[in-house]
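Subgroup meeting minutes
Present: P.N., E.W., G.H.
Scribe: E.W.

1. P.N. recapped why we're keeping a running log of single-chain structure predictions: easier to compare across weeks, and new members can see raw inputs and outputs side by side.
2. G.H. added today's entry (89 aa).
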Amino acid sequence: MNDHSYIKTQHELAKNIRTIRDGLDLKQYEIADFLNIDSSTYSCYETGKTLPSIFTLIKLSEFFCTKIETLLLKDGGDLFLSINHTHKN
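Output recorded in log:
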């Protein structure tokens, strides 16, 4: 994987987990508590400053009840919310 793919994936993950969290009306600390990490660490995931470990990525996908691939796709957060929109009503 070249550097550009890595940066784009990191950016997409950050964007997607924030989009999903906002769409589900959750706070960062709620997800951080589930992951058993500090809120500041989770915040770094959403800003793209750091990447979660593979184990944390698995737990994130479990928390959001989605596949890891969805978290990494371009616009995966929007896709998740469009598919799961009916569950919010």
